[in-house]
């Protein structure tokens, strides 16, 4: 079919609206996850953990962490899998795709030599119900190497993670930051299993819906989902979500959003630079002398422009949100400066702490 044509401004508006970062705010975590696709879980809490700041940035002051717990633990409308919360509607396709990880030759070999260990883990969960990994004995006969340093020597968390990719166990809740596991059949709803081809199409369509407009890549594998589109000044074969395109003229307008560095909006770095002209580098792992904007600076979205970086942190001992700087990547107008300040104040109120502002905003 003949490609649609979009200006760069229109492409940015589509992307912002697809991520629920325009003036029309969603109502709850399930609505966010259905549209955005996934809510990243990360314990880094310079301000607050990613799963909560992602939801606050979209829902606003009405969001409380208890809403996420209810959706996951009681209503079972969201599931934790592979480091993120996903809508339960995506679960069948996700499990088909994740099973490929569990079928990697090294994973298959490790499971084979630890067949008794696997059986003992599943038997303990079946007999005792939901358990922390620490409550399950490590009886592995062969340990996996720990060259990366990301794992402890305890093989139980590795086994549970691998079995979750196979759809045999599931995370039922968290106690603090620790996962509580159970048999998947007691957590997940019964649903038909799609074929690999159906699963790939479903996930590609969800990715494109979450992006609004994207180029198929390793960052955002949309394949041939949606419809072709040409974006003014950009090369390559782009795809657009037809429903988002049809609603382009219904744009409710923009607002200010403060984004956690692990927010889904920031994930596809090449798209971020191509469409928004924003080259984002997380400085968390840079030596301090090489940082320009701070350890864990939050990008500031004003309308459809990445206009600044918020350098701030919660001081746990003092119980206050300290703002060291608001770095202007693009010059703020006075009205924009007031909007940013209002959003930072809203952030402090949501956190339940006073604001200590040493910046010029």
Q: Which descriptors would you attach to this protein?
A:
Arc Repressor Mutant, subunit A, 361 residues, 12 helices, Winged helix-turn-helix domain-containing protein, 4-stranded mixed β-sheet, 15 strands, AlkZ-like, 36% helix
Kindly describe this structure.
The strands form 4 sheets. The chain has a 5-stranded mixed sheet. The protein is built from 12 helices and 15 strands. α5 packs across α9. 38% of the residues are buried. The chain is α+β, with helices and mostly antiparallel strands and 361 residues long. 36% of the residues lie in helices and 19% in strands. β3 and β4 form a beta hairpin.
> Helix-strand pattern, N to C?
EHHEHHEEHHHEHEEHEEEHEHEEEHE
Structural class: alpha+beta
Nearest-integer average pLDDT: 94
Indicate how many domains the architecture comprises.
2
Individual helix count: 12
